[in-house]
UniProtKB/TrEMBL annotation, chains A, B:
This is DNA-binding response regulator. One of its GO terms (cellular component) is cytosol. The modification 4-aspartylphosphate is found at D56. GO terms for biological process: regulation of DNA-templated transcription. CDD domains: REC_OmpR_KdpE-like (cd17620), trans_reg_C (cd00383). Gene3D superfamilies: 3.40.50.2300, 6.10.250.690, Winged helix-like DNA-binding domain superfamily/Winged helix DNA-binding domain. Residues 131-230 bind DNA. It comes from Azonexus hydrophilus. Residues 7-120 form the Response regulatory domain. GO terms for molecular function: phosphorelay response regulator activity; transcription cis-regulatory region binding. Residues 131-230 form the OmpR/PhoB-type domain. Keywords: DNA-binding, Phosphoprotein. It holds the Pfam family Trans_reg_C.
Length: 232, 232
DNA sequence: GGAATTGTTTACGACTTTTTTACACGGAAG
DNA sequence: CTTCCGTGTAAAAAAGTCGTAAACAATTCC
């Protein structure tokens, strides 16, 4: 936490706990954003440069496990679970879905802060080792900074465009089915709205392909989904 | 844990718990080394090749915190604390000294394994995942990416063509009856429409065989079905 | 409050895939 | 030799999918 302060997102329905966590983390110099529902949380996480997510599993508008899976679709950032569920089964499921730590309520504020510090420390160390720049022909993507360049020029992407791109570059060469893309970007209730994908893949091709009509990276697999091709 | 198995070091004075942890982690494919004292633990860890340390804080020959500090002097590898001490102060101190996770005794074996998997996952994420390739002469199939190559060149297949190919390469050398292929690809009500198969096997031969008229992989078993021959 | 940006929805032509139709080939049985 | 059956190609028609532009609604930003 030397120059840029860490951005933390809290996804939690109880305003009281949100506030409690916010105070705890701000004491360590974090910048905190709050979301009361999973859908809002995904929106914020997709829109901004979030360094760490603190997630309550028991939210009213959906299962927190689904949030982890969706988030993991485009981000490797640490996720700490807060939950009232103490059963081992829940912990295992959350950790295996991609969470990094699991803290059961009630928890001590000091322990929460220490665990957040541990995750942040590990994150910064990992960032130093590996270059976060992904390069594909003319396209360069920095997933950590949420920035995209084409032929050296910065490209502006909207939140949805960015999440779609991040999902695709995170699975190079692989076909991502329409159902999966829709479920992880718009939510499980949108798996039939495939026209959204046509519109937004179109946007990405417009902004990132040399010839949008003859895409070389964002390939269509008719009837199945889309494939991000890394090669030239 | 793709090729090289993870090396785990357990530093713990009670032989019973050591054995318990060893069994738990070996079940996940880890290679486990044990140390009963901090000094022995440092010696083993110092020899290198350790991917993760499971450390009991309450050892007779010294403070576990000192172990963490010493270990952090040369390694960034993950450290998971096991401890009978439940007080928050101890957790905070251990985490701030460089530990990555803190589990209080008694703990569930499932949770321990899940937390170890979470730490390992984060460690290995930098390395790209490799999906298994099926190779048959000139033909290479990547079922995970849904991609097919012939003599190094990508081959485009329609959904039905791909499902037919996937079925055949999944049962190499085996005769698949027309009824079975039709039922699995088109549905149970199509088991008499054997003529679809002629069309689509024809497509596959056209796209993947050297001489479609003299197929070497997609063989006809007249009156029965088709066989996928793996050999050259 | 107004302007700019972003997300959603609609419409339609172009394109891909599937289904259907037609016909030629070749071996086995009569 | 002819007939029949299962088979292999080709190409049509039909069905389904995709890409784009543009209008509208919601949201954000000044």
């Amino acid at each position: 936490m030397s120059e840029t302060r860490s951005q933390v997102l809290i996804v939690e329905d109880e305003a009281q706990i949100r506030h409690f966590v916010r105070l705890a983390l701000e004491a360590d110099g974090c910048v905190v954003q709050e979301a009361g529902r999973l859908a809002d949380g995904l929106l914020i996480a997709g829109a901004g440069a979030i360094d760490l997510v603190v997630l309550d599993l028991g939210l009213p508008d959906g299962d927190g496990i689904d949030f982890i899976r969706a988030y993991r679709g485009w981000s490797d950032g640490p996720v700490l679970i807060l939950s009232a569920r103490t059963e081992e089964r829940h912990k295992i499921d959350a950790l295996d879905a991609g969470a990094d730590d699991y803290l059961t309520k009630p928890f001590g504020v000091g322990e929460l802060r220490a665990r957040v510090r541990a995750l942040m420390r590990r994150r910064q160390r990992a960032g130093g080792e590996v270059s976060p720049l992904l390069e594909f022909g003319d396209i360069v993507v920095d997933l950590a900074k949420r920035q995209v360049w084409r032929k050296g020029e910065a490209v502006h992407l909207t939140p949805i465009e960015y999440r779609l791109l991040a999902m695709m570059v995170s699975h190079p060469g692989q076909v991502l089915t329409q159902r999966r893309l829709l479920a992880e970007i718009w939510g499980a209730s949108y798996i039939e709205s495939s026209h959204y994908l046509r519109v937004y893949v179109g946007h990405l091709r417009q902004k990132l392909e040399d010839d949008p009509a003859q895409p070389r990276h964002f390939l269509t697999e008719t009837g199945v989904g889309y494939r991000f091709q890394t090669g030239t």
